[in-house]
Write a structure and sequence with these properties.
Three copies of one chain form a homotrimer.
Chain A lengths: L2 H7 L9 H12 L9 H10 L6 E6 L3 E2 L2 E2 L3 E10 L5 E4 L14 E6 H4 L3 E2 L21 E2 L2 H9 L5 E11 L2 E9 L6 E7 L6 H19 L6 E7 L3 H9 L7 E7 L8 E4 L10 H13 L3 E4 L8 H4 L8 E5 L21 H19 L3 E4 L22 H16 L1 E5 H8 L3 H13 L3 E3 L6
Chain lengths: 453, 453, 453
């Protein structure tokens, strides 16, 4: 076993520590930028992230064909408002970039409320919240506003006139995304992907962005058995373009996580990769065992082809072992896709807990080696190796290590990885990692290829 | 995918509609006929069924050896009675054909009650019901009567004399059965088998007979991807003879159902085929998913080698994927094999519901195609194909279709049939059928052979 | 099928009967002997057992290398005590051999209580019990005593002086174990292993020793399809030495049981062999079905590489299908490894029940044949073979046999052993054995190799 994998097995792995406040501070800087699929807001955001990790910013030209799709033109928006006859801005893009439906066409017209009404979106059930709407890949324009604002307009009657302006345009440009490869001892890559296309929404998905950035920063400084590829890209079209243009990289991706919605106070929720039914994906095992060992409330869900960018990584032509880690998943919290998904909705300690969870998952993957027992006939004399006490009282920590040693020895038969042994034994990963480390040191086990069980 | 399979996926499939009353009317005509394993009653019944479907009536000569069995002689019965000294018919075959033990030998003798008693069968726990007994393949004779009738005889004392007559005989003839093949686009055959050997018993099994007949009638008028083979035959010896004499047909049977006891008000009960543990049988999947989607109470049972004619189809030499559909199974309702299993016990609406269920199962098998995604790398741009709405409100029906589209696309990997996708997704078959139809129309999926998962 | 297997299927198999009292009497003779890993106590015990079964006593010389271990020197102990200044034996080996820590070095010294204290072991939570301690493979010496005894010493203060004597020595000799092979019609061997190294402890493991001895005695007198190999050996080093020195025998071991802790009144507890997850081990099936059919409380546990000598048999290099049968397992009863595990703790009727259970397990293995249906197409005419009654009342015993006949016939497809059929059918083994016996007699089934399902 390599030195770095050994180190990951023990307690010298990085920990989120006080990163919660730092992540929240970064999020506050990112919050006001108007991220869309493409354009200036995305580029400014990626630049900000470069302060934390040395992301490479890549550009894919508008019009590039990618798997039947076409990379869209860039959308540029400068201002937008609805003014009443007195010239007052009743709805004002300067107040919130959620007020404009994403990728709206430009418009400047005076029209009656009756004409304007079909272009207005509100949330009657939450009268003070502005909804988030977008019409990617479609023509048209629209405004989002709180239902209270809409009420004001309504009360002025259907014939009241308003000046409506969206100073925006679609023009050829490029799709921008951030990428970072952290090479390890092997070229077995772990993909970490997060979407960067949403405007001023904190949990969906500034939370995913800052956790991914800090995860990358921590891994950059740690010894690495595996390699790590981080992607910060617009949802759907981003991974589609990346997959289309990086087909040579795909065979190197052995594990993957889509990160999103990681700042709310809900329980951590893991959605398995598509492979979970046919065969075991190590990432599924790793996440599930980490969540089991943490002992905090969490939820494991089966794969479904709906959701976030796992839809693309897990499309049948690729079928990559990529799961998705969130706290409360998209669409299942009331604030989702509204102005209430703001900086207060997201807690520093929840971000830190999410980052810790990611680090533990990475630790489990780093340490997930398949071993071969070098003395597979009967137990070796563990007493002389200092791994077994005689009959009688021994302290619980020694006893736990001793049990872990017995499990690792017995199932290091080339058919069971350390994660397999953790599943079968129900013992904590930490104990098994320690046991494996000691047994490697005694040369009682050695790293091996895995043969199919 | 073929045109007819396409049609089955939508709502133009036949429905039982008002057939409940028609089936019950047919049953009333069939009820008085004295069906046994062989003979006139069976032939008259098959002739009556020919009014509904163009059954071919086949005859297998008495004495024909079939898998170690011998096709029996024909049993003809003309009359039977027990008369007291005054010549009164205390037990009278003209009142109910259940009064004579099936395939009794002929007899005409005067004997005491003490001599007669061993030949009398009643049901003390249901004193007004006449039991149904038969002694196929054995010698002897007997009468069945209500326990009240038996009481009368008992009260006259052991020495009272009775004239006993069974005017019956066994003579070489033939075993008759009905068969109908409805060819479809492929020679993949669905076997539908029902037993026709019981006398005046309504649920067991006039119900199976009339449902099978009306199912055949409806399928005759529908487009068919699959072929259908209907068999109306005496229990046990019927399928044994048919299997022995039609071995060339057997490889064409890909799915099958034994129908019986379909007119009572109990929940639909499905007994899986013998194959359910080793591999998935499509008929097991189809029935279970149809019952799941119906949302009405039902029961799924494991295969066992006891029961009805599935015993022969699922014998180890054949191991055909044949399940059994009943409402309350044989032996589990008090009226089973008694005169209380009469025309009142069977409800037109239950017959109609059973027929509907059969039609839905057939619909699921007709639509059970394995597809191949023609664009398996990432999702195709469904918005432009009209199969995906932008973010924001969309009506629940559209949303359900969109989800079904995503499931069908993702799992059309040649390893999952549409029934497999229905199991894994938990989505209704109807939505998946609609999604598949639309995706075929867009050429995003195409029919494929299935490769083993 | 062979004659002896036939006989095992029926009720002529041996039964524990009144053996409970005999086993308890033998245990009373064995109790006072001081068994350790090696030495005189073990040899005397094996001699006593030779009165019941013709064990061969084998010796392995001290110093023999076995899989990285070394066969230890023999430990001889003659006397041991702690005397106060008045010469009174406060702790006296003559009262209980538990008073000396196993394999203690010899010592004769006068020392203060303060000096003596680190060498004393008691159980404060059970002040009247003496614990059992050993320091196999380690240097040092010690005494075990009740906490009341310790209190006496404590009260005399830290400076009170005691004369301490352990008249013991380690010297080259040999490790003794008992072995018995009972050959059967085939060389498919069943290993029965029990540990013999503990001193005056009744449940752990005189109970395992006497049950194994009486099991061997009963099997010696019975017809045997399988062969049986009984091992009575010291824990850990015993099976390690035996496995190292008998590698040619190992391929013949097809089933195995480690027996221990079989005399307490707890429920029978079975720990599965290591193979239970990858494939079915017949011994696991047999034990679980026997326990199911017994209908008494019991527990089935997954394999773990901790416990008794199954650790060695199930080490990955051997991976033998060896399970472990106990009542309350080691470490789970308060009396475990204390002087309270005495002759009163163990009940004759519990020993008898354990022996019965073992005999039933052996019966299930003896009868576990895979059959081939000689008439696999449809059911054969069972009525003419006297195995099927016509419709109507038949007694429950006949009905159970008839159902068992149908199951055996249907699943005698070379893929299902009789134990497989018992699992799938949920029918009692006894009925299936009887059915198989009758079907063999009718030549409707015949013994077959098993092909993998």
């Amino acid at each position: 076993m390599s030195t770095s994998a050994m180190q990951h097995q023990t307690s010298d792995k990085p920990a989120a520590g006080g990163c919660g406040e730092q992540m929240h501070a970064l999020m506050r800087e990112l919050f006001p930028l108007h991220r869309s699929q493409t354009g200036a807001g995305v580029r400014q955001s990626l630049q900000l992230l470069q302060r934390v990790v040395p992301l490479e910013v890549n550009e894919v030209e508008s019009g590039t064909p990618v798997f039947g799709w076409t990379v869209p033109d860039e959308w540029t928006i400068r201002d937008a408002w609805i003014k009443d006859a007195q010239g007052r801005r009743l709805v004002d893009y300067q107040q919130s970039n959620l007020h404009v439906v994403g990728t709206s066409q430009g418009i400047r017209e005076t029209m009656t409320f009756a004409e304007l009404r079909p272009h207005l979106h509100s949330l009657p059930e939450h009268p003070e919240w502005i909804p988030y709407r977008t019409n990617h890949f479609q023509e048209g324009w629209g405004f989002c506003l709180s239902d209270s604002q809409l009420d004001q307009l309504r009360q002025a009657g259907p014939d009241a006139e308003y000046e409506v302006c969206i100073d925006a345009e679609m023009q050829p440009g490029s799709l921008s995304y951030g990428e970072l490869l952290l090479p390890g001892e092997t070229d077995e890559q772990v993909l970490v992907s997060t979407h960067i296309c949403h405007p001023s929404l904190a949990n969906d998905n500034l939370s995913g962005i800052v956790v991914a950035a800090y995860l990358a920063a921590q891994l950059q400084q740690a010894p690495r058995r595996l390699s790590y590829r981080f992607l910060f890209l617009p949802a759907t079209i981003g991974p589609i373009a990346w997959l289309a243009l990086n087909r040579d990289v795909i065979p190197h991706i052995h594990h993957g996580l889509v990160l999103a919605c990681l700042g709310d106070s809900g329980p951590v929720t893991y959605k398995r990769s598509r492979r979970s039914r046919q065969s075991r994906a190590a990432v599924d095992q790793a996440v599930e065992l980490v969540l089991r060992d943490r002992g905090t409330p969490h939820e494991i869900r089966e794969f479904s082809p709906t959701g976030y960018d796992e839809r693309q990584y897990c499309s049948p032509g690729f079928d990559l072992p990529v799961g998705r880690l969130t706290r409360t998943p998209n669409g299942e919290f009331a604030e989702y896709h509204t102005s209430a998904d703001n900086l207060e909705f997201v807690q520093p300690e929840c971000l830190a807990d999410s980052l810790d969870c990611c680090l533990e998952i990475i630790g489990a993957l780093e340490a997930n080696v398949t071993y071969q027992n070098t003395h597979p006939w009967c137990e070796p004399p563990l007493g002389s190796a200092g791994l077994y006490d005689g009959y009688g009282a021994c302290d619980p920590k020694r006893a736990a290590l001793q049990e872990a040693v017995q499990w690792v020895l017995n199932f290091s038969d080339r058919r069971h990885s350390l994660l397999d042994i953790a599943q079968r034994s129900s013992l904590p990963l930490a104990d098994l990692h320690e046991a494996a480390k000691r047994l490697v040191a005694c040369e009682l086990i050695q790293q091996s290829d895995q043969i199919q069980p």
